[in-house]
Design brief:
4-stranded antiparallel β-sheet; 314 residues; 2 domains; single chain; 11 helices; D-amino Acid Aminotransferase, Chain A, domain 1; alpha+beta; 6-stranded antiparallel β-sheet
Length: 314
């Protein structure tokens, strides 16, 4: 593990440091959101993260097209589908209620949490963000008071300001509690382009390391592809049982969007819905080798959307 990774891990374990960093980040980016227009912010952030300037007028790369969609595409279903609480209603409406992980409780403040009303094992998630969660495997040793301040800091944040993902701007911040469905289950993420799964992102833990690997839509590993977010294992996992069913579900849920990543779990042969993500990494992935960024970009067809916007201007 690198020095930077060790420091990051140490900070995550220090509640006070986490709160301080989150609050400074919230204030900094909140001020930028008030003074810097979305396009200007996106151009600057994109170049900083990917080391190249984006072409937002005639985008070709996948990450460039995601930025174009952030700035120009407004599908009213996206804010609902990307809210971890509202998405459950969306999934049920789409005909897949059996995939939904039950909601044990919903809170608007961490101060409302009553551990006596919860099972021994559970997970608490913020509905309006990414990676904001706490796993409890034994509530007798779960220090709720120490974590309340962190959770309330999540609730003060608006994910929109960090990457200008418009769908988060008006979302209501909440905490939801769900039962645990497994011990760090593999996270199968289906990257769907106009309702067709063309690639997979698979997040899994092995030997204390969190890996993010990429496959094509038929489960063939891209051993050299990285999103810049985590190490790649370079080794293909066995294709999961029920893969074709999961892929079919993801494609049906993705049918209404030019792009969406549909996250599913398969625990003991049962499929669960995780979430739907429209701008992975806020579209700022540093994809290497670069050829994959442009290959994915060929799959993301937004020509009609660009032409439609151009016609409205004229």
């Amino acid at each position: 593990m690198s020095t930077a990774a060790k420091l990051k891990s140490k900070i995550k374990k220090n509640d006070f440091a986490r709160i301080l960093i989150e609050e400074r980040k919230r204030i900094k980016y909140g001020r930028l959101a008030e003074t810097v227009p979305d396009r200007e912010f996106i151009e600057s952030m994109y170049e900083k993260q990917t080391s190249r300037k984006p072409d937002l007028d005639s985008p070709r790369a996948f990450t460039e097209k995601l930025q174009w969609l952030k700035l120009n595409y407004r599908n009213p279903a996206i804010p609902l589908a990307s809210d971890k609480y509202e998405a459950k209603k969306y999934i049920a409406q789409k005909g897949f209620p059996e995939l939904i992980i039950p909601t044990l409780a919903v809170y608007e403040s961490a101060d409302e949490i009553d551990l006596s009303a919860l099972p021994d094992e559970f997970i608490i998630k913020a509905t309006h963000g990414s990676g904001w969660n706490f796993i409890c495997k034994d509530k007798r040793s779960f220090d709720l008071n120490a974590k309340k301040r962190i959770m309330n800091s999540w609730l003060r944040q608006n994910l929109y300001v960090y990457g200008r993902e418009w769908n988060y701007r008006e979302q209501k911040p909440r905490l939801i509690v769900e039962p645990l469905i497994g011990d760090k289950p593999v996270d199968y993420k289906f990257l769907c382009f106009s309702g067709v799964c063309r690639a997979m992102q698979v997040n899994h833990d092995e030997g204390g390391i969190h890996y993010v690997d990429f496959y094509d839509g038929e489960w063939n590993l891209y051993p050299d592809m990285s999103s810049g977010t985590a190490p790649v294992s370079g080794t293909a996992l066995p294709k999961p049982g029920g893969f074709d069913e999961m892929k079919s579900i993801a494609e049906k849920l993705a049918a209404d969007f030019p792009f969406v990543r549909v996250d599913l779990y398969n625990v003991g042969g049962r499929i669960y819905f995780g979430e739907m993500t429209f701008f992975p990494g806020s579209g700022f992935w540093h994809i290497t080798p670069e050829k994959y960024d442009f290959m994915f970009g060929e799959w993301l067809d937004i020509k009609e959307l660009i032409d439609e916007k151009s016609d409205k201007k004229n």
